[in-house]
Specification:
This protein is mainly alpha-helical. The chain is built from 13 helices and no strands.
Length: 236
């Protein structure tokens, strides 16, 4: 799968450039902290807590996905044979999201002045990438993964199919993929409808992206002019 080769290449680049891997890891920690700030209401709400935590850990955090990526690389053809088509489509979106996120993280890491990330550093790094379309694609892929998981909860046989796949998935070396799908299904099922959750993500992420790529973003990120209604107020 091309996307996973991109992820592997990004890891190699970071290890080869002095200090880059450390800055990217600091960036990932900052982005997770930003997510906690942006979605504090969802993380503290009983209905949406588990789904927000799932996104935080699986899509926004500094967690090392190398084991999952290695499994994907070995068994991508098996995924198409073993899983229903709708799940295969979700896996493809997840891989595309992962590759794009890692590419953008590398670009931003190169633009950070050090391994302590501030709101000003973060805004400056995003603006310096000059890739608002890539950020929009990243948001769209995140929402697509969430929409797929929500859609699965309304298909009676999907959960049964996933449960039946545990043994074959383990035998085929797909335990991490299986864990992601089952955990995602269960958290979205418990939410009893993801409309509000996904709408919050779409609205807040797109508002922040627009603000970050604005000409005044770096100055505003100092906090002196950021109020509750300014999307840059999401930055910790």
């Amino acid at each position: 799968m091309q996307e996973l080769r991109i992820v592997s290449a990004e890891r190699a680049v970071r290890m080869a450039e002095p200090g880059l891997a450390v800055r990217v890891q600091a960036l990932k920690h900052y982005q997770q902290k930003r997510f906690r700030r942006t979605y504090a209401d969802l993380l503290n709400d009983a209905r949406h807590r588990d789904a927000a935590q799932f996104f935080l850990e699986e899509l926004y955090g500094p967690k090392d996905f190398e084991e999952r990526d290695a499994q994907f690389m070995r068994i991508v053809p098996a995924v198409r044979r073993m899983f229903p088509q709708e799940i295969v489509h979700t896996v493809a979106n997840l891989a595309s999201l992962h590759a794009l996120s890692e590419t953008l993280d590398t670009e931003m890491g190169r633009r950070l002045p050090g391994d302590v990330v501030t709101a000003v550093d973060y805004a400056a790094a995003w603006r310096a990438t000059g890739r608002p379309q890539a950020r929009e694609q990243q948001i769209a892929l995140t929402l697509a993964v969430g929409e797929s998981l929500d859609r699965y909860t309304r298909v009676p046989m999907i959960r049964t199919t996933l449960r039946m796949m545990r043994g074959p998935a383990r035998a085929a070396g797909m335990s991490e993929l299986q864990r992601f799908l089952e955990t995602g299904f269960d958290t979205f099922k418990a939410m009893r409808g993801a409309e509000h959750f996904l709408r919050c993500i779409a609205t807040r992420e797109r508002a922040l992206a627009t603000a970050l790529f604005a000409e005044t973003s770096v100055a505003r990120a100092t906090g002196s002019n950021v109020g509750d209604t300014d999307p840059l107020g999401q930055l910790p």
